[in-house]
Design a protein that fits this description.
Length: 345
């Protein structure tokens, strides 16, 4: 089973498209990144040994400069409670790691990704024009992009929170990174990445853009971001990147051996179920829909190889337990709209 602790925000199919359609140097950068991603997926780091932060409720951050190498973590640029530095990417990484920590603490009383005070480490300027960001089971790593297709990967708070949430999912459910359980893994990161962004901007569900990676695509690329939770398949349509291939419901479910069985593709289906739930419940999406999804990922009954239907049934259970039968009915209807649960007869 695929249980790699490395998860990257840019899926292989986008990198392959750039290799096929990009300019010579764009293809070179994408090929380098893709080769590295494949190498990462075949390797698991040793268990983390660390000293927990002294005070629960306060992030312990450290940001390093990889200096365009692949040596981690790199040279220390900024650590907890130190002032901003001249490096924009370092400051963005520092700030967004902190916002993500604050979100999980304030909303779910969760003490860092593992709920045990894991210090949050990030390395910026990884590789040369590296076209990705990833969580490696120990820390965050950010490439600079090439400036033509992707901007720096610290630019989008939801991308930072997306990758950090892989650490939460790993700690709580360790969902197998393959087919539907892998797509759920990716969807959890999109869900909470979007919620962290909404929390930071103080947006209600109807005010949010529900775009993952807004600002990450460089000027000239025809798209709003990497993925749309409200309308999967509409995030971009560009001569180099192609058209966003995510399905919005089970009728379009993609059966493939690529992308670990379509984990970045089919995640659009549970993403839209969350969006539909949040819009019906209204208000701040983290208050009801977010609590339901969080309780589900923390449920001991959620199996590592859970499929969409198993996850959906647990969300309905927690909606009823946390809120009301009417809330549970709204959650059920959302899963029915995306074709995961059967429609009522």
């Amino acid at each position: 089973m695929y249980t790699s602790r490395y998860q990257c925000v840019i899926p292989p199919y986008i990198l392959r498209r750039i290799i096929e359609k990009g300019s010579e140097h764009q293809r070179r950068y994408a090929q380098h990144t893709l080769t590295h991603v494949h190498a990462l997926m075949g390797h698991n780091p040793l268990p983390i040994r660390y000293q927990a932060a002294e005070q629960a409720g306060k992030a312990e951050r450290a940001i390093y400069d990889a200096r365009n190498t692949m040596n981690l973590p790199g040279t220390l640029l900024r650590k907890e409670s130190q002032p901003a530095v001249s490096d924009v990417a370092a400051n963005e990484a520092y700030d967004y790691l902190g916002v993500t920590y604050d979100f999980y603490w304030q909303i779910f009383h969760r003490n860092s990704l593992d709920d045990k005070g894991l210090p949050l480490t990030g390395s910026v300027h990884y590789g040369s024009a590296y076209q990705n960001a990833f969580w490696n089971g120990e820390q965050m790593v950010f490439g600079d992009g090439d400036g033509e297709i992707f901007n720096r990967f610290t630019i989008a708070i939801d991308v930072v929170a997306h990758e950090l949430t892989h650490g939460v999912t790993e700690s709580e459910a360790n969902l197998v990174y393959f087919e539907q359980s892998g797509a759920l893994n990716e969807s959890m990161s999109d869900v909470f990445g979007s919620l962290v962004k909404q929390f930071h901007l103080r947006q209600t569900a109807d005010q949010a853009d529900w775009i993952i990676g807004e600002g990450l695509l460089a000027a000239g690329i025809k798209g709003k971001g990497l993925r749309s939770m409200s309308a999967p398949g509409t995030a971009y349509d560009d001569p180099v990147l192609g058209k966003d291939p995510q399905p919005a419901d089970m009728d379009g479910f993609v059966h493939t051996r690529e992308d670990n069985g379509g984990v970045h593709l089919n995640s659009g289906i549970p993403n839209r179920a969350f969006y539909l739930t949040a819009m019906v419940l209204g208000g701040n999406a983290w208050e009801k829909a977010g609590n339901i999804w969080y309780a589900t990922i923390c449920d001991n009954g959620l199996k590592q190889n859970a499929d969409f239907a198993a996850f959906a049934h647990l969300t309905v259970k927690h909606a009823s337990a946390l809120f009301s039968d009417d809330t549970a009915a709204a959650v059920t209807d959302a899963w029915r709209q995306v074709g995961v649960l059967a429609k009522a007869k």
